[in-house]
From TrEMBL, chains A, B:
Residues 241-282 are annotated as: Disordered. Gene3D superfamilies: Glutamine Phosphoribosylpyrophosphate, subunit 1, domain 1. This is Peptidase. Residues 241-252 have a biased composition (Low complexity). It comes from Pandoraea terrae. The lineage of its organism: Bacteria, Pseudomonadati, Pseudomonadota, Betaproteobacteria, Burkholderiales. InterPro entries: Ntn_hydrolases_N, UCP009120_prtse.
Amino acid sequence: MTYCVAMRLDTGLVFLSDTRTNAGVDHVSTFRKMLVFERTGERVLVLLSAGNLAVTQAVRQHIVEARDTDTIWNAKTLTDVARVVGNAIREVYARDAKALETFGVDFNCSFILGGQIAGQPSRLFQLYSAGNFIEASSVNPYFQIGESKYGKPIIDRLVTPSTSLDDGAKCALISMDSTLRSNVSVGLPLDLLVYEENSLRVTRFASLTDDNAYYKMIHDTWGARLRQVFAELPEPQWAASAPGASAASLPPLASPPDEMPGAGDPVSVQSLAQDFGGGAPG
Amino acid sequence: MTYCVAMRLDTGLVFLSDTRTNAGVDHVSTFRKMLVFERTGERVLVLLSAGNLAVTQAVRQHIVEARDTDTIWNAKTLTDVARVVGNAIREVYARDAKALETFGVDFNCSFILGGQIAGQPSRLFQLYSAGNFIEASSVNPYFQIGESKYGKPIIDRLVTPSTSLDDGAKCALISMDSTLRSNVSVGLPLDLLVYEENSLRVTRFASLTDDNAYYKMIHDTWGARLRQVFAELPEPQWAASAPGASAASLPPLASPPDEMPGAGDPVSVQSLAQDFGGGAPG
């Protein structure tokens, strides 16, 4: 299904996307979800896409080909750029949605748009199938589209606007790695773009295959270190409940119809002790 | 929405469920998702539920009240027990689905059923709205229902059938903690039941509120240790691409219509170096 994530940090933007697409498990292909628009020294815009591939490609193509009054190249602000993308979504909807419906296919697309125009701060948006959008802020400094849930907890734990670009990239890769392990519709290679605030050009980009040494290190090391941390966490200690233990410490029991309710011995059910020992030897 | 997880390990079973239910964000309540059936010395069965609360409660009530030929108390094997639960789901569907449809409500329910009958090994099943089910095995030793995606990667990384019961419980709590942080429809208190193989009674159960010392330790320590591991991972190193760098190492660029394609300087885009330094000081 895709997984794309982008972060708006104090020192710039981080973008990471996968390349797997599928129309069922026997029809899996590789298509890039990232498109970069650069007019060196004036603007850098990055568009990540998820959803129905034909829909998202049509939207991207509409933007690239546009010769209207308002294009991605002459929009004055990032909000205007977001509106250009939103309008492209609506144009493609007007053209294709009915035909898709005939075949029982949803008009399903979502985008992340981020970047910077000279003289303005960098900004980050998420756009919906309806062509409208929301913007990232310091209290919500990242967006995800596609299979977002697997990789969300680690970002929630680690990323704030003051996170460095390299740490943001590291965290995005871990988030992607967790997703790759748990969902087959997301796959390598990955596109990673790190945008440095005010550079107004792409200075850092990598297309990561499974033999990229850094990605392999993340893949192998993170899991190994997690197992080590896990082993070091204290084990639960089970202790007998005190006599007259309250009902709240007993499991929600249903008894056989031929027995009196609560015929078992509640005192022998152990509960989690409030004190617990150390973990396994480190 | 709920999150429940259960594992079938070599030495027994682990069950963990939350208690939050909601009919929209202004209608949040606490209901237990776990129900335990025990005939001491003969059978212990644990049922976890997710989905529409009225549907799942109706199914549970049907099972508890049953005086038919085939009940949860006289079923001969765990497969027979699963069929009893499946039939209860179908009875409730027959009774309620049409009325629900009138109000645009899906007949949505899923269950995890696990336990042991004397003389047989413990087993674990997942049941669907259609009343059919699948069984856990050594290659798939756990099931999740409800908001399962957030908490899946950690279980995939850590749990195998040879995992101890205490480690299984620890991992389930971490999985739940990740879910709680990232989704407001899952909430405390939690019901944790650890079933020891061949005990044929409930020996270990805890209802965990946010002031339970062990759960607080998991909640605080896991996140802190993750941040530490993260800081210790090497930072990415960015290095200039070699002259004549292949197109695969460049971002997927779209150029402004008034410029020649590839007008930028590809050599100045840095990529991830294959060698990288050590991490932050531990």
